[in-house]
Amino acid sequence: MEKKKEIKFLILIWMSIKMVACLQMDLSGKPKQSLCDIGCKCPSEGQSVIFLDCDSKDISNLPSSIQLNGSITSLSFRNNRIEHLGTNTFFKADSVEELDLSFNRILKIDNFTFRPFKSLLILRISNNLLPDLEPGLLDGLSNLRTLELGQNAIQRISPLSFQPTAKLQELRLHHNPIFELPEDLLQYLPHLEKLDLQDTGLVRLPDNLLTFTPGLHWLSLSNNAFENVPEKALSKAHRLECLDLSGNDFIVIQKGAFRGLSSISVLYLNNLERLSIIEKDAFAGLVKLKHFSCSYNPKLSYLDPEAFGSLNSTVSSYKTVPREQLSLRQNNLRTLQSPFERESLSSLSYVDLSENPWKCDCHILWMKKLKAETEEAIVCD
């Protein structure tokens, strides 16, 4: 009887040893790899680190069930050859606040892959090959504040993708072939403050897209294919402070184009290759405007002297004045009556009117009275 008990005890010990060995093997029977085994800069024994650097290590496959100790708050896999992230890639990552997967070849990320990242604030997946955003991809990222998805191959985005990320403040989707946005794309992002849609092939902005983001204060729509300023959609962004519309297909900036955007302080209208006319009251109502740049527009030959507002304006009872910086560099302007009141000129700290084919006459005499620092002297054609 005692001998049988001894045999059973030995069998149990053998099975325990076998189980421990199995836990250290992957499905192929080979010992599991750690991040240290694939070249990451791991800490020495007893050393505590907050940043785990796995950049530029020629990594194509990550080990499964990665566990990160509680001191690591930042993890980076930039510039590798990773193509796929599976649900079992990460097992424990409670303390990580920043994860960088940019500059890889990621084609697919399985749903729920990021669930272990309960504290994640910043996720960078830019410069990859992701084709779409589907529900489940961002599941578990309830604390996420910044999401960078620029320069992928994203064509389709489901609004439900963002349902788990209600605290998101910054979303970058630039340089993706999106072409068309769902009207309810941002419905789960009430705290969004920055939105980058640069170079996404857009020809229109859904009228109600920005109704879901009352705190939005920074928006880039540059290098798209808008033929008109998307006035109706933009009018919903009442707190917008910085707007970039450079590189679009505008021919005319129409009257009241920025109606309702009284919080705008920075406006960029550069590199508009087709722009030729800016109408009266085009910028009326931009009462907080500080920095205005409308440069490098080779066909812009007419800027109405009342483009910044007029006494009988139907758009706004206030005249717009760029308070700090004004740039009209390298357009095709030959003449320009002063669009500002005399007293407003003294507040400008920087003015650039250079590289236009100015015709020197009484209409541009006001330029000589500018006290602000100018980039280059005004030269008449």
UniProtKB/TrEMBL annotation:
It comes from the Eukaryota. Keywords: Leucine-rich repeat, Repeat, Signal. Pfam families: LRR_8. InterPro entries: Leu-rich_rpt, Leu-rich_rpt_typical-subtyp, LRR_dom_sf, LRR_TM_domain-containing. GO terms for cellular component: plasma membrane. PROSITE patterns: LRR. Residues 1-22 form the signal peptide. PANTHER family: ANTIGEN BSP, PUTATIVE-RELATED, CHAOPTIN-RELATED. This is Leucine-rich repeat-containing protein 4B. It comes from Stegodyphus mimosarum. The lineage of its organism: Eukaryota, Metazoa, Ecdysozoa, Arthropoda, Chelicerata.
